[in-house]
Write a structure and sequence with these properties.
Elements: H1 16-25, H2 30-48, E1 51-54, H3 56-72, E2 83-87, H4 114-122, E3 125-130, H5 164-171, E4 177-182, H6 188-194, E5 197-200, E6 220-225, H7 228-238, E7 268-270, H8 282-296, E8 301-303, H9 314-329, H10 348-359, H11 362-375, H12 381-402, E9 407-411, H13 426-430, H14 437-442, E10 446-453, E11 459-465, H15 471-485
Parallel strand pairs: 2-3, 2-4, 7-8, 7-9
Antiparallel strand pairs: 1-3, 4-6, 5-6, 5-10, 9-11, 10-11
Length: 493
């Protein structure tokens, strides 16, 4: 998958940092860089299916504006002129935003999500909106209302989900970076499956304003990139307080790049037994052991003794809390306010019923029903309230571990990417997020970085989880491991 450009070289193989430097050096223009990625999308999209909407004309206009800004010497951001993609769950003014659902087929937002506004202000170029599981509910991007997305490493396999389009777009070199959302692992699991870097910041580090909500106490926006350095660059631009989101931390954003080269010496990293369960495939377990040995032999102290006995309860807790919140959030999509709707029934209520029956896919309807049941009279105390109590226990166990350790290391997913259509049992699909959900339950920052290869040469992800608001240490360790391991992030083909 190599496309040359008039200026020579494969521009789509550059990292964000490399492309930035070439723009500053004057041997590359944003227009040529953007056109190279649009050509790449045209070349690969028929087989990958990473995008729902490609905004080619708008992207080239933004690229020309970036080139003019660079020529003037007034460069506001390290992202100026760099082409990225946005998960189709983020509001984009004037560009269709569907959340992967026919329910929002005709939604043209009148405003931008805060992260989109910040990227526009930074001069980044938006190539379009990426495919996803409907309303971010899924682990394979097979539940999009439009089409499935394929894994660039093996087109018969899934890219993970729900942000599978964003991960696949980076892996296929269709963009230099992308944004996704992570409710229970929807950034990190696709990053693992597609062999790229995926970062979920602390809940509240990045504004959720303009994110179409799945589960409001769990959702968080974060970047996909080829390198940890690039993830730090993207996070630097989108993080920070926002008066439009009351859940955002009102604290300064650290200089993430300033700590990224510090290495591993003296760091204590916990590897709790509960994160290394019997559910892991043998090839994933082997890759994890190799990664732990590499960390330990290069200055980190790996401690396998911490216990987190409530951790196995994170999955059932999540599948009570998240569906409960989604059943409330998705109640607004009734065929009245957002364009899509069945008409001609006996009453408004019958039209609403038909709209929701036709407009929502099977997985979304399943989770709405689960949530409505958990919140119903007679079951609220037994399910939702009990889940909140266990959530508190899980948070406290993380706090106890971080009182004596800098980070936690774990696998990202229990398997490598599976064949499309191979998992039809919803519970088996939910198990894909068994190692990622705990960080969402506790609101902690976590990253997946390429951690080796498993069956048939498919990527394995290594996950690092840090204390609240300590993305800097997460990025520091991830970058050190990345340099030591040197795993390829380029699919063949």
């Amino acid at each position: 998958m190599t496309a040359n450009t008039p200026e020579g070289g494969a521009l789509h193989d550059l990292t964000l940092a490399e492309a930035r430097q070439r723009l500053l050096d004057g041997d590359l223009t944003s227009r040529s860089l953007t056109q190279a990625h649009l050509d790449r999308i045209a070349q690969t999209e028929p087989s990958v299916g990473a995008f729902i909407t490609v905004t080619a004309d708008e992207a080239l206009e933004q690229a020309d504006a970036a080139d003019a800004l660079i020529a003037s010497g007034d460069i506001p951001s390290p992202l100026t002129g760099l082409p990225i993609a946005l998960k189709d769950v983020l509001m984009t003014q004037g560009t269709r935003t569907t959340a992967g659902s026919r329910m929002l087929d005709s939604l043209i937002p009148p405003y931008d999500a805060t992260v989109v506004s910040r990227l526009r202000a930074a001069g980044a170029v938006s190539l379009g909106k990426t495919n996803m599981d409907e309303f971010a509910m899924g682990s394979s991007t097979e539940h999009s209302a439009w089409h499935p997305t394929s894994n660039p490493w093996d087109l018969e396999r899934v890219p993970g989900g729900s942000s599978g389009g964003s991960a696949a777009a980076v892996a296929a070199r269709q963009c230099l970076g992308s944004l996704g959302s992570d409710t229970g692992g929807s950034i990190r699991q696709p990053a693992s499956f597609c062999g790229v870097v995926g970062l979920k910041p602390t809940y509240g580090r990045v504004s959720r304003y303009g994110l179409i909500a799945f589960a409001s106490s769990l959702d968080q926006i974060g970047p996909f990139t080829r390198t940890v350095e690039d993830a730090a660059l993207l996070l630097q631009e989108i993080a920070g307080p926002d008066p439009l989101d009351s859940t955002c931390y009102d604290v300064p954003v650290p200089d993430f790049m300033g700590q990224i080269e510090r290495g591993l010496d003296g760091l204590r990293i916990a590897a709790p037994q509960e994160f290394f369960s019997d559910g892991m495939d043998d090839d994933v377990a082997e890759a994890m052991e190799t990664a732990l040995e590499l960390l330990a032999s290069n200055g980190a102290e790996i401690d396998r003794t911490p216990r987190m006995p409530s951790l196995p309860m994170a999955l059932p807790v999540y599948y009570i809390l998240a569906p409960s919140e989604c059943s409330a959030n998705l109640a607004r999509f009734d065929g009245v306010k957002y364009g899509y709707g069945a008409r001609g029934g006996e009453s408004m209520w019958s039209d609403m019923e038909a709209t929701r029956g036709h407009g929502f896919g099977r997985e979304v309807k399943r989770r709405i029903l689960l949530g409505a049941y958990a919140l119903s009279a007679g079951y609220y105390d037994a399910y939702y309230l009990q889940a909140q109590k266990v959530r508190t226990l899980i948070r406290r166990e993380f706090d106890r571990v971080f009182a004596e350790h800098d980070l936690i290391v774990a696998p990202t997913a229990p398997t490598v990417a599976f064949k499309r259509g191979a998992i039809t049992d919803p519970y088996q699909m939910y198990l894909n997020d068994i190692f990622t959900i705990p960080a969402n339950i506790a609101g902690l920052p976590a990253i997946s970085v390429p951690g080796g290869f498993g069956a048939d040469g498919m990527p394995v992800g290594l996950q690092l989880v840090g204390p609240r608001l300590d993305e800097a240490t997460v990025l520091q360790v991830a970058s050190a491991y990345e340099r030591l391991a040197g795993w390829s992030t380029a699919p063949d083909g």
